[in-house]
Write a structure and sequence with these properties.
The chain is of the alpha/beta class. The protein is 32% helix and 28% strand. The protein has helices spanning 32-42, 63-72, 86-94, 104-108, 111-120, 154-164, 185-189; strands at 9-13, 16-21, 24-30, 47-51, 77-80, 99-102, 125-133, 139-143, 148-149, 168-173. The longest helix has 11 residues, at 32-42.
Length: 190
């Protein structure tokens, strides 16, 4: 039996942590450094930070903030948001993160994931999929923090990302985000 792992996924916006509902209405929660200290005390297995506006704002990852977070974090750390190049990944891993999370750029350029895996290994590359049920009741991938429909089926995209060598998939249900209704188990099983 696999050991249950606790991996909080924290959302960054404007250098602070936020909570969203269906990827909208971001409410400020606090300073990321303080939250890292809390999860250190609670002995979380890993932390994931996702900068939810970096891609939409065409911003690079916030390296200074990530350096500060990595300096306080006593568990494996993953970061996603605004990653568009091998150099972005190199810089994030060099500051102490163990993994990077790629979302929009993986959809726009799936071969980027293969290239990233060749450079850094599959254990360092996580592909995040933001999924929403469309008007016709079909699940669809969205990019740019859930703003832009990609017209891609999540199951076929997951298979493609597995073929490119991605080490992990992070599946986000836009419809259930922040609603306290639990995971979309049906989507995960697919």
């Amino acid at each position: 039996m696999l050991k249950t792992r606790i991996i909080p996924c924290l959302l960054l916006k404007d250098r602070g942590l936020v909570k969203t509902t269906r990827f909208k209405d971001a409410r400020y929660l606090g300073d990321p450094i303080n939250i890292v200290r809390i999860f250190n005390d609670k002995e979380a297995d890993e932390l994931v930070f996702l900068d939810i506006t970096a891609t939409a704002e065409n911003r690079r990852p916030p390296i200074k903030l990530l350096t500060d977070i990595a300096g306080e974090c006593f568990m494996p750390l993953a970061y996603g948001g605004g990653i568009r190049s091998i150099e972005d990944i190199r810089e994030i891993l060099a500051l102490g993160a163990e993994k990077v999370v790629v979302n929009s750029h993986a959809v726009e350029n799936p071969s980027f994931i293969r290239k990233a895996v060749e450079y850094f290994g599959s254990q360092s590359i996580v592909v995040s999929m933001d999924v929403k049920r469309n008007f016709w009741g079909k699940d669809e991938i969205f990019t740019c923090s859930g703003r832009k429909p990609a017209g891609i089926d999540p199951v076929s995209f997951a298979s493609l990302m597995e073929e490119t060598g991605a080490g992990e998939l992070l599946v986000n249900s836009i419809d259930r985000d922040g609603t306290m209704s639990g995971y979309d188990i049906g989507l995960v099983k697919k």
